[in-house]
DNA sequence: TGGAATTTAAAAAAACAACTTTAAATGAAT
DNA sequence: ATTCATTTAAAGTTGTTTTTTTAAATTCCA
């Protein structure tokens, strides 16, 4: 464990001043070639790297982004994260990760802990609990303290900051409309995420599509239930009743559980039941039959969020107007859908 | 965007020195009660938080862990990460994430970038390319520079550092043995990860289990192919031949692809074909039939790695002997296996 | 009660590492 | 000897913590 090379250590080595070393390493014209060369060579040899903590302190910025994610095990967030990380690396930023675990307290705690100079700005998907409570004061405080926030996917209406969202309403509308065009007369709607902004928007899109197609909204075909156990019971009942010829599932659990229960009942997919769901693309392809999904372009969401934040950090514009960017979704038609 | 409260700012406010404020806030007995109270009250009012960058510079430590992961989209790594994050939060550490994308260069670059005071230590799963090249100099350099490393899952034999691994050999041995006990006579071995240390160990465990059971190792039942396209072609051929009654798949792709191709061919699982694979537990349960897997306790791996690193960071023991911790796996028997 | 000793409170300074700016010094040339 | 050009030294900046000094207040004893 040899001592790390610092300007001071190098200066001592050559009996010159710290500023001489600093200038030599930044290749300043003020320093003689001979001195520069010997110092630069020594620095390279010792693998000198400026201590970024010291630099950060001086510059009053850290080139670090804080990313607050409700649940890293959700592949959607993992993908968004990969998009953030990619852009961050390109722009020379580090990424500090905080997991809120869908908890309001932990979200607040983690963000507060990081908002002390550790990070320059936040990228956040709001925790479920926070969104249920509509408790957004901590976001306002952080923004007021001068730390910018970019929200993605789950956003807070009242907060004036950059946002990156998916067109949840439209994508649900389009998916439902697609099922109608395939000949479905009875489209069930399944959701365990109706407590989230995204879930509500998707539900609205579904209803609008039915209304526009002059189809009635059948409450008996709708299962909105946040508690997984209760949801599964209701879903089992619905599937056994065989009242529907298509399912639109708003989240991964309801999508996959529908497939599993239907296959167990011997219901043929897609011959007897069309299914479109929100789910991870890789795993949807691995199912048999493969699941048609609404692809949300998660990496692009992350990339865009990172770009917005870094742009804001680099601009000195006091009167910057926050914007909301909508990332288009795509309907990925796989084996779980076909003309009835 | 009001100015952040600093010691200096508070000192100026009361016309006292910076050190007085510092001591007052740390409730030092050197400061009179009256002074302490007024300063503490003011600090609370102004929501003063010590600038962690400055503290880090002074303390020569950042309470931040650098986690280098080959691919965050792999649920295994995401789960390990969640385990790391949990312990880190408990112990008051932040987590900076770097993704190597399985690339040697990026791994080196990211770690180098962070090893300048930004982080106190690393937790690393080695990139595939790094492991193929057996190029471990950067790890040695970092350790020599005084920054401890804990490796998990994919580890480098030649490097003297803490390691957290799964008993890949044993778990493969046990899984294979389980298939034998279920009555399998012809157990195929599929792997797209034979370029990784973990893949090789699992392969060895499979062979040992067969040998111990006095069964021959049939090269015609073994598909080792890193390129996904080539793998799929070979797998299709193997499955069409129907030469086996069981499959042991060493990674997620080969596990799921086997199920998919077999089901497409009308092969009944598990009646005609038993399958055990390495795969994500959540999604394995969602498959129909659900997939029996080797559960690797990923969060525990991450937690243990974080504990080892933080312990090392907090101990001043110059002669600390690095250890290798083995996390036990568990065979999760689901619908894809049963007595033949 | 006056002067010294001791306690107490607070201020000053140093350190962390990098970086910047200003001032000074050296050397050569005029 | 003076001027100019080139180097180098010194000092200040960031915010915190820790150590050292200084100043004031109190106690103690003669």
Automatic annotation (TrEMBL), chains A, B:
Pfam family, one: LacI
Keyword tags: DNA-binding, Transcription, Transcription regulation
UniProt KW DNA-binding keyword: yes
Gene3D superfamilies in alphabetical order: 3.40.50.2300, lambda repressor-like DNA-binding domains
InterPro entries in alphabetical order: HTH_LacI, LacI/GalR-like_sensor, Lambda_DNA-bd_dom_sf, Peripla_BP_I
GO molecular function, one term: transcription cis-regulatory region binding
HTH lacI-type domain mapped to chain residues: 5-59
Protein name as annotated: LacI family transcriptional regulator
